[in-house]
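Order emerges. For instance:

***
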Amino acid sequence: MSNAQVTVLDTSIIVRQRLEELHEWYEDWKRVDNELARRAKKLETTPIDIQKGAQIGNLRKRLLLQQVKRPLEIDPEVVRAVGYPALRQHLVEQFARLTKEERLFWLRNFMFIMTPDIRQFDDKITRLREYRSFGQQRNVLLGGESGMGKTTYLDWFTSNFLPTIETTRNHVPIIKIDAPEGHSPRPLFQRIILACGMNYLQRDKEEDLLQKLSTFFQQCGVEVVIIDEVEHIKSYGVRRRVLEISNMTYGVPIICASCQPHLWVASDPEIAGRWNDYVRLEQYAGKRLVQLLVFINLLLPFTEESFPHLHEELASPKGQGGIAGLIRKLTKGTVRDLMLLIREASKDAIMNDLPCLNAQLLERTWKSIQTRPVKHTESVPTQDG
C-alpha cells in the first residue's frame, strides 16, 4: 500500500462523517491557499522573488488536491466481499437523510477517486521507493490519452508528500515538474532546483545547475522525481540530460508521464533501456466501463438506481450497450470527461429534485457542456490529466 491514505468504500463509511472531513479539508486548503496568495502579492520583481513566485504557484497547484486528502477507493474485492446490494443500501439510507446542499457538497468526492487502475500504479510507486532502499533504481513511463487522470493522480500523490522546513534543510521527498520545451537543458535544471525549494543564479552555467541539482537532491532527501508532459522534451541533448540526472542521483526513480511516453524513449536505446517499465491508463470501454459505472453508482447521492441495468450489461457478451454505450459515445471513455459528465448531471438532478440520473439527463447535460464553458469551482473540481 502507498503511504498516502485513502478511505476504502465499505459498510464502515459514515456519510455525514465523510462530509465533515470534506468540509475540514476544504477549509484547511482555503486558509493555506489564501495565505500563499497573500505572500505572492508581496513579492517584488527581483530574480529571487520571481523564483519564489514560481515556487508558490507550484505549491498552490499541488495543494489543490488536498481538498480530497483521503480519496474514496473503489476496491472490487471489498465490494464483492461486502456484497453490492448491501453496500448500496448502506449508502442509500444515509443519502436519503441529506439536505440538497449536503448532496451537492458530497459531489466533491468526484474530484479524485482511487480507481483500480490508479491503485495499481500507486502500488507500483510504493515498490519503486522500496527498491531504492535496497540501492536499486527503477524508472517508469506513465502513459494514457489526455484526460485519463495521469496528472490528477500525480498532483494528488505529490500533495501527500509536501516539502517541510527542518532545522538544517528543506525536506522534499517528492519532486514534480512539467517538462519544458526547447533545446537547452537549463529550464529543466532550473525547474527541478525550484521544486527543491532552492534558488539558482541567472549566470549559472549548465554544469553549475547540474551540480547544484545533485547537491540539493542529497540535502533535501529526494526520493522520487516526476516529470509530467515529458514529450515536450524533443531535443536529443535535453533527453540525454534527463538520463544524466538519472545516473547521478543515487538511485532516485524518475517517473516520466505523457500521452505516448514510449515514443519519447524510442529513438535512444540507452534511455529506452533505463525507462523499460511502462504503465498505460487505458480508456474505459466495454466491460471495464460498465464495471466503473457500477462502482460510481454506489457514490451517487440518490435514493434510486441511476444505472439500473448495468449488471445485465456486465453479464452481456460485449457489455457495450445501453447507458454504458451512451456514456462511452459522449465521453470517449476518458476519466476527465466521464467525471465531468457525472458531476454536472448530478448537480442538475439534485437542484431539480430528481431521484437519479437517466439517459435523457446525461445527453442534455453533455450538450450543455459542449456549448458553454464549465466552471471548475472550488467546491467541485474535476478529475483531469
User: Anything to note?
Assistant: The radius of gyration is 22 Å. Residues 7-114+283-371 form one domain. The first strand starts at residue 7 and ends at 8.
